[in-house]
Structures are given as C-alpha cells and as structure tokens.
Prior knowledge:
Helix content is 3%, strand content 43%.
Amino acid sequence: VQVDWGHPLAYGLVVDYLFNEGGGKTLYSIGPVPATATIQTANVWSQSPRGSGVLFQNVASHQANMSAAALNITGAITILAWFKVTGVATADVVNGYAATTPFAGWGMDVGQTAGGTLSYWNGGGTWNGSTGTYNDGNIHQAVITATSAGCIFYKDGKQDSTGVNAGPNAYTGVRAIGGRNDGAAANGFTGTIYRVAVWKRALSAAEILSLFAEPYAFLQPVPAVRYWGQVPATGGTGVMSTGGATLNTGLRIPILARFP
C-alpha cells in the first residue's frame, strides 16, 4: 500500500508504521520520507483481526528504534497507536527520552499516571493521564493530540479526557516503539503493538473518529503498471517460453508489474 497524498487525513503525516512486514526485525514507515524502526532483539510476530503485530515483552533493549529525523517535532502533534496490553506495569508505546532535568522528549505511555490509563509526556515536567483504561486484554486505538492549548486523549475514536501538557519541546534524539530508546528495562511495553503513526498537526475529533471507523482511509493499493517487454532477438537465457514452446524472438508482450 501507499499513502494517498491527496486525502485530507494524509496532511501533516510524518511516519506510519503499519507492522505489515509479518516477520523480521525491521519495520518500514510509509510516510513522506524513508524511515525504519529496528527492533533491537528477539521479537514475536502475531496475527489478529487488526493484522500483524509485534509482541513486546518488557525486556531491556527490546524496543524498535525509529530513524526519522522528521520526528523532531515541536508544536502541534498527533500520536496514534493500535495495541493490546497484556501487562499492567508502566509501558512505553512511543518514547523519546533524554536524561536531563526535566527529561527531554515526548511519548505515549500506558500506566505512567495510573494503572492501565493512557499518558502523555511532552518533555516539560509531568505526565498527563487519561480517564479510560486499556489493560482489559482487548485491542484499542489510542490517540493523543497536543497543541499550545494542551492535550486531548481519545480512546477508540471518542474523546476520553484532556490535559495541560502542550506540544513537545525541542528534542532531537532517538524515538522508540515498545520501550525506552536508551534500552533500559524500565517502562518496556508488555503486549502487542499493531500500528504507530505520527502527524505534525493535531487531528480533529472528526478525523480521529473516521480513522477508528476506517483505519486505512488515506491509504491506497500500489497501482499496477502495464508495460511492454520484448523477447530478445538473439535468444539465449533472455528468451521466454510458455508451455514448452519458445516465443518468437522480437515478440512484444504485455507485462503486468507492481512497483513499491
């Protein structure tokens, strides 16, 4: 799939990790700039009605470090994730962390402010938390938006609560999915993450609800391209055949291909 950049929901998109690789240690974003997230150690892939996801097990250096410099966002931001919590400890869904006072960075967390609730950090002092909880063993869509006016928490498409933390401060370090980017065992996510996306703007309540109803609304299949290939006149290894019979040299044939 690819982003439909003409779709309103694609405006401001920075990264979108779909977790559709199905295996391996590299996650690929389909955002506007090439970006990957590298899982640091052993991982377990799983399948669900939400598609494929990675099971994070609150293990040191188990996080997936994101590469995109475009994540150096200040001001308005939206963080979206689909996940299932299977543990009740503090769990980083998306995290950027620097050991300063106060800690620099920004992040989405489960359980930082209260057991099972969603939390937001903007590098400014304290975590803000949601009212709704996520540690019920079900898959949820969680969204946090933040502007200069504060932050808003959304659970499964509906506004849950608000906080005072504004958009993130200046931070240029590594961000991570599923744990702390410094590889510490503290705050590692326990459960499965299915998608992480970030926008450099605050999505509206209507946009977030539409993404819950149709999570892939701004994505589209990679178009098929028909072009003409020609059988080499000299024969040899380049000559194609069908049914055991060699095609006439110089014959032009239609070839259907997809380009990533």
